[in-house]
Amino acid sequence: MTETIAVLFIFFILVVFGIVFYARYHKISSQEKQDQDLVQKAIDITTKVLVLPELECSQGQSEAQKYCLDLTKLRLIEEKGLFQQHLEEYYFNLFSYSTITVYQTYPLGDPDGWTIYNFPKPGGKNKEPTFFIVSLRDDFPKRSYNYGYIKVEVYS
Amino acid sequence: MKVIPVRSWNKKGQMEMVGLVVIVVLLTLGMLFLAKFALNRSESTTVITRSGLASSTVTAILKTTVSSSGCEGLELGQVLLEDCAKGKIFLDNYDQQCEGIANTCAYLEEKLIPQLLEGTLGAWNKRYHLITNLRGREDLNPLIKVSSMLGDCVDRERDASVPHPLDVGLGTPVETTLFICE
What we know:
The structure holds 2 protein chains of 2 kinds.
Chain A lengths: L1 H49 L5 E4 L2 E9 H10 L1 H4 L1 H9 L2 E9 L7 E5 L8 E12 L5 E12 L1
Parallel strand pairs in A: 2-5
Antiparallel strand pairs in A: 1-2, 3-4, 3-6, 5-6
Chain B lengths: L5 H34 L4 H20 L12 H14 L14 H19 L4 E8 L9 E4 L10 E3 L3 E3 L7 E8 L1
Antiparallel strand pairs in B: 1-2, 1-5, 3-5, 4-5
């Protein structure tokens, strides 16, 4: 009788241990999944930014240059707040709740960069920044390619 | 003389054995479960991000217009890399002199490329190394090798950019590859 109780006791301890372990695992994995979704969303937004005609380095009839943003367009978009002006009818569908900033590191540019889209989620708790290195084409005073990166922050 | 009830003792032993077997089975199941979860973690997103980042970084580096004194307005990939390759072939005879450094390979390896990479990948705590080779000239390779402050990615799980070949007019291309790891 005592042995049976002992075995049952160990059995139930193992079951409880298993349930606790699974609950913890589930909590962590759902958090990881959420983080991964956020990173994936940031990658998607970065990809959209890189091929956006409003920003890419076009060259007449030829195909646009890869991993390159046009500084003339970028400056104008930030100055006029073009993405913010057409937020509801177009850009929110592309970038959702996020902040997109472009920085120039060589030659050293403005440390604040160019914030071209800024729409944080109201009451959003998590923020996931993703970085991607790009060339920044500057046509004034003469054509040069600077070195910088895009920072995309997505909110959840 | 005391008589031992053999049959009932055996039955009790069998019951205990069944209990132990159940526990062992449960423990094995638990371990299998744990192993499955531990091995099944997806790293696809990280890999996509890293290889994409490596490719975009090399493309941006090679396209960069240099603003240093002595070689202002020159393209890093086309002009300086070409000068570095030619200089190595022709016994350290370089055409360009950036920031007073007569050896273009040394300027790229010790100043310009580390400055570009440390300001971005280095600032994001990424480990990396970049290698530039002249195809078919193992005696001169690597032309340039730059590693992060944290070390290189030689013995680590890493992602690389596709090799970026650049025709520098030597009949054989100069290839630049960037490796990024955690």
